[in-house]
Amino acid sequence: MTEQQDSTHTNLLLIRNGLDIPDRETDRTGNRARLLRATLDALTAHVAVLDETGMILTVNKAWRDFAAAADAKPEAVSEGVDYLGVCDSATGDDAPLARAFGAAVRDVIHGRSDYFEMEYPCHDDREKRWFVGRVTPLPGYSPPRKVVTSHLNITDRVVMEKERDRLEEQLRNAQKLEAVGTLAGGIAHDFNNILSAVIGYTDLLLEEADAYPAIRDDLEEIARAGMRARDLVAQLLSFSRQARTETGPVQIYLLVKEALKMLRSALPSNIEIVQEIQSFAEITADPGQIHQLLMNLCTNAYQAMREDGGVLTVRLEDVEVDASHTLAFPDLAPGPYQRLTVSDTGVGMDEATRRRIFDPYFTTREKGEGSGLGLSVVHGIVRTYGGGITVDSRPGKGSTFTILLPAIKARETAVDPVAETVPFPVNERILFVDDEPQMLRMARQMLQKTGYRIDTLDSSLKALEQFKADPDGYDIVISDMTMPGLTGDRLAVEILKIRPDLPMILCTGFSERIDEDRAAAIGVRKLVMKPFVRAELVRAVQDALAGSKGTDGPVSGASTRSAGEP
Prior knowledge:
alpha/beta, elongated, disordered C terminus, 5-stranded mixed beta sheet, 5-stranded antiparallel beta sheet, about 575 residues
């Protein structure tokens, strides 16, 4: 029968019908008892028969083997043990479930329930296990009744279900990131074109601002804000795996000052900001990612204090990592580090929350108040640069995030790309192609101020026709990547068919079709990311004319061939 094949129910059927087995060999009581014992011992479920008081009358082999494997005392696996007493005296995380199971057993014994089943964990220090427990009364007894308890190990099933849930969650997260990446790629090109105008024209104004000191500070603020917006777009693309980060020497203290200055105007007046900068060293990192790290940590601190206010403290100091740090930062190599500490006096976290704060999409905020990605991004940035991060927090006592990042020796001089001096060449002639009129006007001003002669066209098809009409009329061609009719890379291919030696530069705010390797493969000398300042554009032109992407010095001298005026 199907019901008899269920190992968790077979014991009840045999106990119920044990006296009525028709086989002649079971006529004698001893044979029937041995047959019943052998049957119970063959079951994989852990089976015990309890009397009306909850004492164990008998258990099967699976029960005895499990108890022995768990190093239970001998009396715990033999008849006469108070099963209900064991449930009542359970300790640890499983105690509430054990007491609930004991109460259910009493209900079946006293007739308040005919049947009970419950899934529950039963963990020890060595492994995690899950069981399904069932309680069924023996027939022929009025309450109080004898009952049979069975405990079936369902660990394999639970583990598989948890693994399935984990994989499904990973798939959902991957789909979220893919959606973010699609959105980022869709807006990056147009947004960077807008930023190009903001940053480019501000850069041009700054070059004339020495005569107007009253507005120079304002222009510099606009320039910094524009560059920060550029970095944020790059971070979004990087997070969605559509762009590579660019690392270099970074002075964290400058980013701390900028971030806190931005936060002062955004945070409510009941939150005090304390800045303690004791280190002016540098690290090797992407400045946009470090700024993002700071803003995420400070925003997290604000969220913890927004109800009652408090103090946000950001501290930066030098530290030498040695053996004394191995407990908190076991993966860090000895050497000089910068220690960044972000503390708040907010609500704090319990231990269970603290353990999960770096998990992607884990958040304690209400729906719509956060994605749960902020601290996981912080953790990823820190690990990327070979650093370490710890969190100290208690409910009602606030939280302190401590980050160590490897320090490098400070450079003697720092170059500001906005203020970099651009050497003037002679008069090379440039063809600049972009379908955005504001980009054409800005590029003309940038390059003419440097001494170049420039033609601008808003159509790649017109540019190809004009180049075919006078292939030797230009020293270099600069083209936007994304244009109607003929994209920049295809324009480059057509032009290089005519003049394979011609320096070509492609500009792009974002394109899935082009990167430095693909550009080099079709013969393009330089790939310039929008938005850019004049120094960056001129440096790219100089490098392309020199025939090397890595040229550091200025390029002088006229073109080897003559070119007519535009």
